[in-house]
Amino acid sequence: MLRSIRGSSLRQIQKRFNSTSVAATYFPQEPAQPVLQTESIPGPKSVALNKELGEVYDNHATYYVADYFNSLGNYISDADGNKLLDVYCQISSIALGYNNPELIKAAKSDEMVNSIVNRPALACFPSTNYKQILEEGLLAAAPPGMDRIWTALSGSDANETAYKAAFMYQHAKIRGDKPFTEEEIKSSMENKTPGASDMTILSFDKGFHGRLFGSLSTTRSKAIHKLDIPAFPWPKAPFPELKYPLAEFEAENRAEEQRCLDALESIIETAPTKVAAIIVEPVQSEGGDNHATSFFFQGLRDITKKHEVLFIVDEVQTGVGASGKMWAHEHWNLTSPPDMVTFSKKFQAAGFYFSNPDLQPKLPYRQFNTWCGDPSKAILARGIYQEIVKHNLVDKTAQIGDYLYKNLTTILSKYPHIVSNLRGENFGTFIAWDCVDANVRNKILLDARKLGLNMGGCGDYSIRLRPTLVFEKKHADIFLGILESVLAKA
C-alpha cells in the first residue's frame, strides 16, 4: 500500500510511524492478520446462538454473535472463532481496543466494585468521590471553554437532557425571578401551554440524535427510526450537500452552505414559536457521514447568537479523538464555544458539557432521574482519557487518518464506476465514501467480512470508518489490502 504514496510525502508519513506501537504495548497477542475458521460469517455456532437469542430478544439487526472474551485489540471475534479486523467498533464506541489491559485494571479496582454494587441515585446521594472522578476524567477532557457537566445514561439521554436544559433556560429568561403561576402549574399537568412549553428544538435534514421521544423528533436520518412513533412538530433545516473533491468545488460548496444558512435564519425568524436551541452533528454520522466546512458551522454560531438561540453540538459519535482532535467541533475555530456539547460512545459514559451556570435549573428535581449517570462508567471514561493523554492518541489518530485518506484516494480512484465522494480529509479516521447504490454497498460490506474485515455502512449507500484510537499503520495496511481486493471483484 505504501507504493501509492511517493517521494517526500511517503518519507514523512513513514517517519511518523517509527514511534513505539501503542497497540503492541497493550496487546502483544493481538492477531497479525484476520483469522478465518469458517467458510461464511456468520458461522454455524453464531447462527445457532442467534436463533436461540431471537426467542427472547429482538435480534433482527444482528450481524453475527460476538465472543468478547476472545476479542483483542483491533480484532473482534465471533462465536465460531473468526477474528475480524474491526473498523466499525460497536458503532464507534470502542476507544482503546477490545479487552484493553488498563481498562481491565480500572474495572477490577475497589473503586469500581464499590460504584457498581452501591450504584447511587446521584442527584440525591452523590458519592464522596464523584467530583474527583469527574475532575480526573470527563471534566479534564471537557471541550475548550466548558467547565460544567451533566451526566446521563446514553447518547439519546444526553441529548434529551440538553433539550430540557434549553427549554428551562429560555423560559427562565422570560419569567425572570417570578415564581411559577397557578395557571402554569395546572396547565402543565394537562400537557398544555403556558405550563407546557410550545418552544422547539431545530435539527437538520439527515441528522441523527437518538431514539427517545424528544431526540427522535430531532432525528431525520431514516424513516425506519420514526415510523409509528408520535413526534413533536419541530422544525427542520437543510444541511449542506457538498461536492467532492472539495478543492474542485469551492465556489459551489460555499454557495450551498450559504443557501442552508439563509434557510436556517429564515426558519428561525418565521417560526410560529420560539426556537429554543438548534442541534447539529459535526458529521452527520447515521445520515450518511455528511460533512460541512468551518464556514457553515461558524455561520450557525453567529446566527444562534444573533437570535438568542442555544447552540447544541452533538458529539456523541464524533467526540473523543476520532476526528484528530479531542472534540470534532474544535476544527471549526468558532468565535465563541457552543452552549452545550453532548457526548457518549467512546467515553462509555454520557452527558453534556456547558459553562453557563444558568443552564443548570435553580430548583431540584427538574433535571432528574434515578441514576443521573453512572459512576462506574465515569471511572471507565477517566481511564480512557488518561490513556489517550499518556499515549498522545489524538495526534496519532490524526496521523493515521492522513495515511488512510491518501491511500484511499489512490485506491478508490481506480473504481469510479462503483465508489465516489471520498471525504474526511484532515479529519482523523472519520472517513467515508459513497457507493453507486445500496446493493453495491451491502455487497462490499459482506465480501469484506468474508475476508476478515468488519466495516459498517451509513445513510442509504455510504461506507464509514470507525476504528479504535489504537488503529495503526499495520492495521491500516491490512484494511487497505482487503478493501482493494473486494473492490477489484465488485
Automatic annotation (TrEMBL):
Cofactor(s) the record lists: pyridoxal 5'-phosphate
Entry's Gene Ontology cellular component terms: mitochondrion
Domain of life: Eukaryota
Entry keyword annotation includes Lyase: no
EC number(s) stated in the UniProt entry for this protein: 2.6.1.19
Gene Ontology molecular function, alphabetical: 4-aminobutyrate:2-oxoglutarate transaminase activity; pyridoxal phosphate binding
Cited PANTHER family: 4-AMINOBUTYRATE AMINOTRANSFERASE, MITOCHONDRIAL, AMINOTRANSFERASE
Subunit structure, as described in the record: Homodimer and homotetramer.
NCBIfam families: GABAtrns_euk (TIGR00699)
Protein name per the record: 4-aminobutyrate aminotransferase
Lineage summary: Eukaryota, Fungi, Dikarya, Ascomycota, Saccharomycotina
